[in-house]
Amino acid sequence: MATWSNINLQNSASPLMEQIIFFHDHTLIILIMITILIGYLMINLFLNNYINRFLLENQMIELIWTIIPAITLIFIALPSLRLLYLLDELNNPLITLKSIGHQWYWSYEYSDFKNIEFDSYMIQYSKSTPNNFRLLDVDNRIILPMNNQIRIMVTATDVIHSWTMPSLGVKIDANPGRLNQTNLFINRPGMFFGQCSEICGANHSFMPILIESISIKNFISWINNFS
């Protein structure tokens, strides 16, 4: 989860989020190189006294400053396209989780199992429950097994919501009348926090998402004990 004074991306908990972080760092390095080069050229331009009254055109320099940005864009576009296709890749999911957005809570259905569905509301923080995470904890958590491919199907009943889980690299819109699909692969146990990231009304800030990642053995026990 995000903490105070953390300006970086959250720690990755899935292979897709690792790839997103690598792409972010790759693009940032290119932007820093461009910024340094342009800054150096502009400072040089302001500080030197060179002048050429007869310089009207120079086709070679125009060719260079057209080709170099094009090559730079290729270095950004190719990894971006690769990542875009990786994010859409879905290979033999173990289970399917259906997430339905409401004003202002989420409801979930484990469609591979009979009658496993529940609503998830934010827990009100108080001094009597200091162990709850303020504005992030819910009464019914999503329980998912780690190290398994999971399909997430997202829709909404009223307005547009957005099911977002930063540490897992997932952000998918929940549109009324439309079923969107994405995938998860959680590579470590723990609790992962997310929120609706589409402004959906007065209580938009108060419909958090909480995933608890556990081993497959404990997940099967949870399924058997669910009532």
Automatic annotation (TrEMBL):
Catalytic activity reported:
4 Fe(II)-[cytochrome c] + O2 + 8 H(+)(in) = 4 Fe(III)-[cytochrome c] + 2 H2O + 4 H(+)(out)
User: Which residues belong to any copy of the Cytochrome oxidase subunit II transmembrane region profile domain?
Assistant: 1-91
The gene behind this protein is COII
Which cofactors does this gene product need?
A: Cu cation
The residue ranges crossing the membrane are 21-43, 63-85
- Which purpose does this protein serve, as stated in its record? Component of the cytochrome c oxidase, the last enzyme in the mitochondrial electron transport chain which drives oxidative phosphorylation. The respiratory chain contains 3 multisubunit complexes succinate dehydrogenase (complex II, CII), ubiquinol-cytochrome c oxidoreductase (cytochrome b-c1 complex, complex III, CIII) and cytochrome c oxidase (complex IV, CIV), that cooperate to transfer electrons derived from NADH and succinate to molecular oxygen, creating an electrochemical gradient over the inner membrane that drives transmembrane transport and the ATP synthase.
- Subunit structure comment from the entry: Component of the cytochrome c oxidase (complex IV, CIV), a multisubunit enzyme composed of a catalytic core of 3 subunits and several supernumerary subunits. The complex exists as a monomer or a dimer and forms supercomplexes (SCs) in the inner mitochondrial membrane with ubiquinol-cytochrome c oxidoreductase (cytochrome b-c1 complex, complex III, CIII).
Q: How does it sit in the membrane?
A: Multi-pass membrane protein
Task: Select a single GO molecular function from the record's annotations and give it.
Answer: cytochrome-c oxidase activity
Which UniProt keywords are listed? Copper, Electron transport, Magnesium, Membrane, Metal-binding, Mitochondrion, Mitochondrion inner membrane, Respiratory chain, Translocase, Transmembrane, Transmembrane helix, Transport
Q: What's the name of the protein?
A: Cytochrome c oxidase subunit 2
Q: Indicate the family of this protein.
A: Belongs to the cytochrome c oxidase subunit 2 family.
Localization recorded for this chain is:
Mitochondrion inner membrane
InterPro entries given in the database record: CcO_II, CcO_II-like_C, CcO_II_C, Copper_CuA, Cupredoxin, Cyt_c_oxidase_su2_TM_dom, Cyt_c_oxidase_su2_TM_sf
Q: What residue stretches are annotated with the Cytochrome oxidase subunit II copper A binding domain? A: 92-225
Q: Which GO terms describe its cellular component?
A: mitochondrial inner membrane
GO annotation terms (biological process): ATP synthesis coupled electron transport
Give the principal location in a single coarse category: mitochondrion
- Please name the source species: Papilio maraho
